[in-house]
Amino acid sequence: MSDLPGIVITGASGRMGQMLMKTVLASDKARLVGAVERAGHDWVGRDVGAAMGGAAVGVTVTDDPLEAFAQAQAVIDFTAPAATVQFAELAAQARAVHVIGTTGLQSEHLERLEWAAHHAVIVRAGNMSLGVNLLVQMTRKVAAALDADWDIEVVEAHHRMKVDAPSGTALMLGQAAADGRGIDFERAKVSGRDGITGARERGSIGFSAIRGGDIVGEHDVIFAAEGERIVLRHVATDRAIFARGALKAAIWGQDKRPGQYDMIDVLGL
């Protein structure tokens, strides 16, 4: 067992953190060696198994990420942008693979990740599922095949607790559509329409976000022309798919050179 890569989970108490820990604990390809929470959280100092309401597993929650990362081969991180960039610097110091599922990252965060990737492997994706990454590839190909007579809209739905919009996955899909068309994504992107917006601008890529209930994740890419539509769709019903993808990425990254990678690399698509 000791030769299996050791994994640390950040944001251990969150829904995704708990799912990630359960996935690693159930795996025969990796072992859970650490769990990180913010200072003052009531999980700190407790066994993660007991904290999740089960049997002890021998891993204690800590608020010292560097100490945890130092004994790990990989860190899986679905937290918040400010925390993620700090974890990236610490993971780079520890030369641990850093798998990032955090969304809402801005240009200043991405610059700091670029620095960290000079020293360690970073695998970052707006979505870790196989199905979504296939959808990204399909979106790119369909967009390349259709001209601007076909309007592109991305519609996404998530649970009421999601704090960013459009989702990271929606932005991945929009970027793929722009890449397929050979246009600048930031210039083509339109989100948050409200009021008298005027006619839709030719060649733009629109976004709509739905928030409610416990929706895990639904994404539609709509190509609409006069008299016809093409709809590419992915529906996630269990967030375990993201945890399994993240663990796959952590294992995949073990023999890779420092740099930034994504799930397309991991899946060999």
Q: Strands of the largest sheet, in order across it?
A: 3-2-1-4-5-6-12
Cα-atom radius of gyration: 20 Å
H/E topology pattern: EHEHEHEHEHEHEHHEEEEHEH
> How many beta-strand segments?
12
β-strand percent reads 15-25%
Shape: elongated
Structural class: alpha/beta
- Low-confidence blocks of residues: none
User: Helicity range of the residues?
Assistant: 25-40%
Question: End-to-end span in angstroms?
Answer: 31 Å
Chain-averaged pLDDT = 96
Query: Number of helical segments?
Result: 10
Q: How many strands, what sense, and barrel or not for the largest sheet?
A: 7 strands, parallel
Structure notes:
With 269 residues, the chain is an alpha/beta fold. The protein has 10 helices and 12 strands. It has helices spanning 15-26, 48-51, 65-70, 81-94, 107-116, 130-145, 168-181, 185-188, 240-252, 263-267, and strands at residues 6-10, 31-36, 61-62, 74-77, 97-100, 121-124, 151-158, 189-191, 205-211, 217-225, 228-236, 259-261. The strands form 2 sheets. Strands 3-2-1-4-5-6-12 form a 7-stranded parallel sheet, sandwiched between helices. It has a 5-stranded mixed sheet with strand order 8-9-7-10-11. Strand 5 (97-100), helix 5 (107-116) and strand 6 (121-124) form a beta-alpha-beta unit. Helix 1 (15-26) crosses helix 9 (240-252) and helix 4 (81-94) runs parallel beside helix 5 (107-116). The longest helix has 16 residues, at 130-145. The protein is elongated and about 60 Å long.
